[in-house]
Specification:
The structure holds two protein chains of two kinds. Chain A is elongated. In chain A, a hairpin with a 4-residue loop joins strand 4 and strand 5. Chain A has a domain of 112 residues: GMP Synthetase, Chain A, domain 3. In chain A, the strands form two sheets. Chain A has a three-stranded antiparallel beta sheet. A three-stranded mixed beta sheet of chain A has the order 4-5-6. Chain A is an alpha+beta fold. Chain B is of the alpha+beta class. Chain B folds into three domains: 115 residues, Copper amine oxidase-like, N-terminal domain (Copper Amine Oxidase, Chain A, domain 1, 2-Layer Sandwich); 96 residues, Immunoglobulin-like (Sandwich); 216 residues, Zn-dependent exopeptidases (Aminopeptidase, 3-Layer(aba) Sandwich), CATH 3.40.630.40. In chain B, the strands form six sheets. Chain B has a seven-stranded mixed beta sheet with strand order 9-10-3-2-1-12-11. In chain B, strands 24-23-25-28-26-27 form a six-stranded mixed beta sheet, with helices on both faces. In chain B, strand 2 and strand 3 form a beta hairpin. The longest helix of chain B has 21 residues. Chain B is globular and about 70 Å long. The N terminus and C terminus of chain B are likely disordered. Classes of the chains: A alpha+beta, B alpha+beta.
């Protein structure tokens, strides 16, 4: 191979590498890390109204979520929709859902199901599609079965309603597997959507 | 200290009077006076009365017009024991007979009957006080005596039942009805007014003699087309319920509203006592496990007035353990008979170990919904385990044959499925049992029907027999908390569940029934909807 031919090949290879680097350049709209499964089952909320001309666009992107709260008379669960800031990753989304449940309903006639002394320690979305909610439960709390069913159903159904690619929710208590929250509902296994506690 | 400036000065009225040095004597005396007055005030409702029985006079504590239950019961010779947790008094006349009274009792359980009184029994400084009609309608009859209250003398005069009446009244007009509820017949003697009577077994049947009033019989003798009662015959101031054959026996008890005497005729279920060396009764083949929910540090739900679910469930469970063998020949095992914590799986495991025919878990409900009230009966929801089963099947279909498919080691979810299979085999019977219990609770406990429900309750999951969880009422509801505290309500719930258990086994297909002990007897009170036996 002549010296000229070798230089041409080197030049072509350098150009190819440069082109590849250019094509794979990080951009704001396309993350560099591996593609992740979407975790939002919900669609982004419609922006409220048209922004005024000249005003900066709202930096907060929102999603519409469905939360399940109890009615004040019979204790059955009813859905309530609201818009929340779009979370960046599943853990944050699970935490946001829990916080919205803890905040309680806005619709008259509904009541919150989470006592203040129940908090979310951690929430995970496992690759198998199982959600793990690790909740902290104050040892002084006690429940009847209706109350316990409302708490568990609200957590499970709200999670499965909003988080995509999930079928089951496993609840840990204070970081460990537990028989139940208060002696009733079985927490030893992951749970699917609990329809029995929803209002007809 | 600087004087004057910035300080508030008080005018001096007189400098000539020397002020005595401060001594605490005067305030102390004043305080003592206040204390005495306060004690007098608090005790103003406390008085005493007397009770005369067999020539002896007994002091009876009185509070706001009500009489001490314990004082009166002991005076007429009854044995009194007190549950320190609930304050309920158990008054025993002889083995097997008891009367219960606790704070709030309006329906007094007397043996197998409920007697309503005009106002609740109440507790004052740890002592139970009841109105006069508690003694007249319940306690004195239970003790086999009658009592007359003289408000002027503040004196109860006690005489043996059937003894000399205070004064003879108008004659009692009578109606007779005969109803057969297999396997017993009830002869109801409806009275125009309550009157004292003495029942006595005679050769031809059971005779009732009125002791303080004349009677107006509706007929001299009437024959009935009834399997047990041949006739009802009036003679003088007595009536005889004539048995159809000599293997029958009967007992009589009074009921009120309307006033009536019920004669219950049944076949002798045991060998006559005159037979020598009767063999001991066989151990029933059927075992029923009753599970009082929670216990120990697991209090369960707590009511607005502080009532704890674990205490209510234990009280009802003990009553249920006594009530079930009266309805179904069975051995009843409690998962706990004390205030102790037991895991949910251990409760079910005990039932499985005992090879129980039924598992009844008792609970009291609570909800953040203020309006929630009433009773509910649950059986297991298989929704969750079905989902787990589907997931396991899907994974095993997809997985390479590395691990032995189906082995619990290969897949821990199989443990759940196997545990659940135990109950899924009985799910239809559990549903039927739940329905029977809920129907009875609706009738007897007067709670709102919240129906039968399914839920993934851990305590039901592994039971290898029909299993239900009964929520007897909402402890979170103030009114129902009061009910749950009352011994009468607890007893009525226990009797209702026991009756449902009897119905459950009574309707069960013979092939599925336990080997022995299915003798079902209805409760003594007349049931609605029974068919009157036609008179000839």
């Amino acid at each position: 191979m002549s010296r000229r031919a070798a230089a041409a090949i080197l030049l072509i290879m350098a150009a190819a590498v440069g082109a590849l680097l250019l094509l794979n350049r990080p951009s704001s709209s396309r993350p560099v890390f591996r593609r992740r499964l979407p975790f939002l089952r919900v669609t982004p909320a419609v922006a409220p109204g048209t922004p005024r001309p000249g005003a900066p666009a709202s930096p907060v992107e929102t999603v519409r979520v469905t939360l399940f709260f109890s009615d004040a008379t019979e204790g059955k669960l009813h859905p309530e929709e609201r818009d929340i800031a779009k979370p960046a990753e599943p853990g944050a989304f699970l935490r946001a859902l829990f916080e919205e449940l803890a905040r309680g309903p806005t619709r008259p006639g509904l009541i919150g199901v989470l006592p203040p002394r129940i908090q979310l320690r951690n929430g995970f979305l496992m690759p198998s599609g199982e959600v793990v909610l690790d909740i902290a439960v104050d040892s002084s709390l006690s429940f009847g079965s209706a109350e316990e069913l409302s708490i568990v159903s609200s957590l499970v159904d709200t999670t499965l309603q909003n988080v995509a690619n999930t079928q089951r929710v496993r609840i840990l208590v204070n970081g460990e597997p537990a028989e139940s929250l208060g002696g009733h509902v079985d927490l030893t296994r992951p749970m699917g959507f609990l329809r029995d506690e929803l209002a007809p | 200290m600087l004087s004057g400036a910035g300080r508030l000065n008080f005018p001096v009225i007189s400098n000539s009077v020397s002020t005595p040095p401060f001594r605490p004597v005067v305030p102390c005396l004043a305080g003592l006076l206040v204390l005495v007055l306060a004690m007098h005030g608090s005790a103003s409702g406390q008085q005493t009365a007397s009770l005369v029985w067999r020539g002896e006079t007994f002091p009876i504590a009185v509070s706001r017009g009500d009489f001490s239950v314990g004082d009166v019961a002991r005076a007429v010779g009854l044995t009194v024991s007190r549950d320190t947790t609930t304050g309920v008094l158990t008054i025993a006349a002889k083995p097997g007979r008891q009367l219960l009274a606790g704070p709030g009792t309006v329906q007094v359980p007397v043996d197998q009957k409920i007697v309503e009184i005009s106002k609740p029994v109440r507790s004052d400084a740890g002592v139970l006080y009841a109105p006069a009609d508690f003694f007249e309608k319940a306690l004195f009859r239970f003790a086999g005596v009658t009592g007359a209250w003289d408000a002027g003398e503040r004196l109860w005069t006690i005489t043996p039942a059937g003894g000399p009446a205070a004064e003879p009244g108008a004659p009692v007009t009578l109606d007779v009805a005969v109803v057969h509820v297999d396997p017993t017949t009830q002869v109801v003697l409806r009275e125009s007014t309550a009157a004292r009577f003495v029942p006595r077994l005679v050769e031809s049947g059971l005779q009732i003699r009125w002791t303080d009033r004349k009677i107006v019989p509706p007929f001299a003798e009437r024959r009935f087309d009834d399997p047990l009662v041949a006739a009802v015959r009036f003679e003088g101031d007595a009536v005889t319920v004539v048995f159809r054959d000599p293997t029958l026996t009967a007992h009589a008890y009074p009921l009120t509203d309307p006033d009536r005497i019920v004669v219950e005729v049944a076949r002798l279920v045991q060998s006559p006592p005159i037979e020598p060396a009767a063999p001991p009764p066989p151990v029933p083949a059927l075992t029923i496990v009753v599970d009082p929910g929670h216990g120990g540090t697991e209090t369960g739900a707590i009511g607005p007035a502080g009532l704890q679910e674990k205490d209510v469930t234990l009280q009802i469970a003990r009553r249920l353990a006594a009530a079930i063998p009266r309805v179904v020949s069975s051995r009843v095992v409690l998962t706990r008979d004390s205030d102790s914590a037991i895991s949910l799986d251990d409760r079910t495991s005990l039932a499985n170990h005992e090879k129980a025919g039924l598992f009844l878990s008792l609970h009291a409900n609570s909800s953040r919904a203020v309006g929630a009230h009433g009773s509910e009966t649950y059986y297991l929801s298989l929704e969750t385990s079905d989902q787990v089963s589907q997931d396991v099947a899907r994974r095993e279909n997809l997985a390479p044959a590395a691990a032995a498919p189906g082995s619990p080691e290969a897949n821990p979810d199989l443990d759940f499925i196997l545990w659940d299979l135990a109950q899924s085999a009985h799910i239809n019977e559990s549903s039927r049992l739940a329905e029977a219990i809920q129907t009875q609770l609706n009738v007897v406990s007067r709670t709102e029907n919240r129906g039968i429900k399914q839920a993934p309750f851990r305590v039901l999951a592994g039971a290898t027999m029909p299993a239900v969880l009964v929520e007897v009422g909402f402890i979170s509801h103030p009114d129902e908390e009061k009910q749950l505290r009352s011994a009468a309500f607890q007893e009525s719930v226990a009797v209702a569940i026991a009756k449902a258990v009897g119905e459950f086994f009574g309707r069960r297909q013979p092939a599925a029934a336990p080997a022995a002990g299915l003798a079902v007897t209805p409760s003594p009170a007349p049931s609605p909807g029974v068919t009157p036996s036609p008179a000839r």
